[in-house]
Amino acid sequence: MLSLAFSAAMLGIEGYVVRVEADSAAGSPVFTIIGLPDRALGEARERVRAAILNSGFSYPAGRLLVNLSPADARKAGPAFDLAIALALIGIDEQVSHAALREFIALGELALDGKLQPVSGILPMVLGARNAGFTKLIVPVPNADEAALVAGIELYAVDSLRAAIAVLDGHGAKWRRRTVAPVLEDADEFAHGDLADVRGQLAAKRALEIAAAGGHNLLLVGPPGCGKTMLARRLPSILPAMSMHEALEVTKIYSVAGLLLGRAGIVRLRPFRFPHHTISQTALVGGGCELQESMRRYRSACDVPGASATKASRRSRLLPWAWSAGSTSNSSRA
After folding, report:
1. pLDDT digit string (tens) for 278-300?
2. Domain count, the chain
């Protein structure tokens, strides 16, 4: 019998919906996952089997096949565990097939059936809402992050049994309220305020011009003259982020797993201080997965100004020893 559930995945920092199709057939017991899974997802076979049995549900017999659609996109991470388990339980009609099609399920399963947090919840929830889904099941530690998305029914559960109870219509105790994020003026600056600097009039003037016009800035001088101290305070005079910019930054933090235990949207512009020995590849970022994604979605990357827009969300300090080759937009401090 065929069973269908839904989960979500990420492409870069954008989320999209994944169909989790489970089927059983007569034959020797085999469990196969297809749809370009990575190694962590391939190991979900053992986690899901143990979680189902230890939660008191029957495990379907025969040859089991799970397909993750779209099949041409690589799937990574353990966030599909819960959806796979629900799809397998649905094969024997231990849960309503109609209810399975209404929910997006996210979360990693422990062997005892407990639900573990995953990274990238915010972009995946946004992608699910944009795809028309309004009901989501997430792990309890990810609830605050998912609650940043308004207009959804959010259920934060701690186990597979709780997720089944939600699907059976008994999810009132796990329902979480979602509130649209509100941007407020930041009272503190993580790296200091430019108003605290005494002297350095020419350098402060250069920082103000660079911040106002979005220009590059090169600080040149001997060690200890204040280059790093000034550069760290540049975010304090940058314009406040718009809601769109703040959500984009928060999604990046979510993908990096930096939002666990942190409530609310990221309001301060990030500041990056790479080591002076950093390579150009490490500075810009990338990798095999990013290159593959860019080849498949090149049309989305060719939008004029896309790179400049993303770069404007942050400030980045390059040590003088690395950037001394640049001569444009420079200021001596």
Report:
1. 887 777 765 555 555 555 445 44
2. 2
What stretches of the chain show up as alpha helix (H) in DSSP? 39-42, 44-54, 81-91, 97-100, 121-130, 143-146, 160-167, 201-213, 227-232, 243-255, 280-284, 288-296, 298-301, 306-311, 320-323
CB-neighbour burial class of residue 200 (10 A; exposed 0-12, middle 13-18, buried 19+): middle
**CA 132 to CA 134: how far, in whole Å?**
6
**Backbone φ and ψ of 88, nearest 5°:** -65, -40
- Encode pLDDT of 62-110 as tens digits: 999 999 999 888 898 899 999 999 999 999 899 999 999 999 999 999 9
**Distance set, CA 187 to CA 122, 192, 209, 236, 268 (Å):** 25, 11, 23, 11, 10
Range of the domain at 307: 194-332
Residues 256, 165 share a domain: no
The secondary structure of 61-85 as a DSSP string is: PSEEEEEEESTTS-B-SSTTHHHHH
